[in-house]
C-alpha cells in the first residue's frame, strides 16, 4: 500500500443534492489534493469525474463514522471498495471488528488501514511544501491512461510495478 493517509473535506454544493469534496492524500511523504463533485440520491453518492463511481452508505454502530460500499470504474474495469471514515484519527477495536465483518459479508479482501500517526496533509496548500493539486490532471486524463493503469494493476506483478512507478515519480518531485 503506497497511501499513508487521507482525509476528506465535504461541503454542500449550490445545486440541489450536490456535494463538493476535496480529498487530501499523503503518499511517499508528499501531499496531493483532488477535488470532485458528487450527486446524492437516496442513500447513494455518485460522480463522473475523475472516474465514474457510486457508493452506498451502509449502517454502522460507530457514532461518528461513515461506511461506504462503492463501485469505481477505471478504464474498462470496475473495482469494489468498502471505506470506513471517521472524524477521529483512531476508532475502537469493536468498530474495526464491525468493519472487518462488513467486508467479509460482502466477500471483499481483508481491509487495509491508513496511518494517521504519519501526519495528515493540511487543507491550506500554502502551508504544505510539495503539495500537488492533481484535479486537472485526473479530470483531463484520457481513457488510454486509465487503460494503462488498469493493465499495470492486473498484470502478474502489477501492484509492485505501480509502486515502483509512483516511487520514481515521488523521488523526482522531491529532488526538484
UniProtKB/TrEMBL annotation:
Which GO cellular component does the record give, naming just one? extracellular region
Q: Which Gene3D superfamilies match?
A: 2.40.128.20
Location in the cell reads:
Secreted
Q: Which residues does UniProt call coiled coil?
A: none
Q: Where is the major localization of this protein?
A: secreted
Keyword Lyase assigned? no
Task: Provide the alphabetized UniProt keywords.
Answer: Glycoprotein, Secreted, Signal
- Designated name of the protein: Apolipoprotein M
**Classification of source organism:** Eukaryota, Metazoa, Chordata, Craniata, Vertebrata
Amino acid at each position: 500500500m503506497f497511501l499513508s493517509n487521507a482525509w476528506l473535506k465535504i461541503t454542500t454544493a449550490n445545486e440541489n443534492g450536490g456535494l463538493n469534496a476535496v480529498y487530501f492524500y499523503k503518499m511517499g511523504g508528499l501531499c496531493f489534493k483532488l477535488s470532485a463533485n458528487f450527486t446524492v440520491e437516496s442513500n447513494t453518492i455518485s460522480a463522473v469525474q475523475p472516474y465514474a463511481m457510486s457508493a452506498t452508505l451502509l449502517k454502522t454502530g460507530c457514532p461518528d463514522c461513515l461506511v461506504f460500499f462503492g463501485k469505481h470504474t477505471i478504464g474498462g474495469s470496475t473495482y469494489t471498495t468498502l471505506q470506513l471514515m471517521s472524524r477521529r484519527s483512531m476508532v475502537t477495536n469493536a468498530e474495526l471488528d464491525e468493519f472487518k465483518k462488513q467486508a467479509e459479508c460482502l466477500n471483499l479482501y481483508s481491509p487495509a488501514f491508513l496511518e494517521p500517526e504519519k501526519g495528515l496533509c493540511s487543507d491550506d496548500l500554502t502551508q504544505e511544501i510539495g503539495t500537488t493539486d492533481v484535479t486537472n490532471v485526473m479530470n483531463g486524463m484520457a481513457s488510454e491512461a486509465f487503460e494503462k493503469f488498469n493493465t499495470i494493476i492486473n498484470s502478474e506483478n502489477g501492484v509492485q510495478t505501480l509502486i515502483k512507478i509512483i516511487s520514481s515519480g515521488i523521488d523526482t518531485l522531491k529532488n526538484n
